[in-house]
Amino acid sequence: MTSVGEEVQTFRGQVSAGDLGTTLIHEHVFVGHPELDLNLPHPEWHEDRAIETAVEGLERLWDLGVRTVVDLTVLGLGRDVARVRRVAERVRMHLVASTGYYTADVLPAYFQTHGPGLLVGGPDPLLELFVRDIEEGIAGTGIRAGMLKVVTDRQGITPDVRRVMTAAAQAHLRTGVPITTHTHAPSQNGRDQLAFFREHGVAPERLVIGHCGDTEDLDHLRELMDAGATIGMDRFGMEHVLPDDARVATVLALLREGYADRMVLSHDAAFFSRVTPPSWRARHAPHWHMENISRRIVPRLVSGGATEDDLHQLLVLNPARLLTRGPVAHDGEDD
Q1: Which string of DSSP letters, residue by residue, matches 204-219?
Q2: Residue 25 CA neighbour count, 13 Å, CB half
Q3: Where residue 252 sits, what CATH number does that domain have?
Q4: Where are the alpha helices (DSSP H) in the chain?
């Protein structure tokens, strides 16, 4: 294995991990769907207006002390880094782009014919995409991805999800970029993700098992952290899934047990998502936005006993450790 430096890729190029500051490690700027956006435009989407909303929102976040936001919008969620660059160029915030593929079950038909042993054949386009996004840049923009994202949901590790996860593991071993996940916490399939990645040579310390804040099962969360993984307490504001009071209580309980170095906080929020558009969020999830942790959650954590050192660990040190590129495999080590 070969070590790499402690730099993190952002929309404006490399920055030192020590300069990331307070970081929201699981967010989205815009979530869309290119085919639907073209053929069934959402009535609430107006690109210029959305750009202004995102710029204003990230500037407010900066004023609240947040310095870095990781945009985990990958393929399958309407990733358009050229659009997000219009935001990044106007804000003080560091934005980090991501690569990966968001599917809970099957990939598009293209992937059924392209790849080793398939009809058209050739190398796996998923692996080529992930590595190119990390090493050269996304979609010709030169903006390089700083994180890999994969998904398992209720369906578990389907054959196509396994293919995505395999490509992500191989890309991680080649580049050192960390992996973060979407899980279905009620079925505890973060355990399956952890086992899969360990079998494929990924160190648990390079994994964020996402959406763990959706469960109050402390035994399950301890199991993941005791194995070395970091858990994402990353859906604050999604009170239609679990109230924030319960999420805070879980974090406080784990802090008291000494797990501050194995958790990260975020919201999984977006300035626009056609899945849950702004009008729906305003009515049904009014606290589901990127200011929630700064304005509501941090004060609740402090009143429950969290220390300044705890908060610094959760919001600064842990994200910086994870986003720093780790050791990379020599050619052939990941085969």
Answers
A1: GGGEEETTGGG---HH
A2: 37
A3: 3.20.20.140
A4: 34-39, 47-63, 81-88, 110-113, 125-135, 159-175, 190-199, 218-226, 244-256, 278-284, 292, 298-303, 308-312, 318-323
Q: Tens digits of per-residue pLDDT, 170-217? A: 999 999 999 999 999 999 999 999 999 999 999 999 999 999 999 999
Q: How far apart are CA 150 and CA 74, in angstroms?
A: 9
Structure token pair of residue 69: 């936001």
231 - beta bridge partners? Answer: 209, 263
In sequence order, the 6+-apart residues with CB closer than 8 A to the CB of 55 are 87, 90, 91
272-290 pLDDT tens trace: 999 999 999 999 999 999 9
Domain total in the chain: 1
Axis-axis angle for helices 218-226, 190-199 (nearest 10): 10
- Residues 37 and 41: their CA atoms lie apart, in Å, by 5
Q: Cα(81)–Cα(102) distance, rounded to whole angstroms?
A: 16
Q: Is residue 335 part of a domain?
A: no
Q: Which residue has the tokens 């990379």?
A: 328
Count of helices and strands (H, E) across the chain: 14, 12
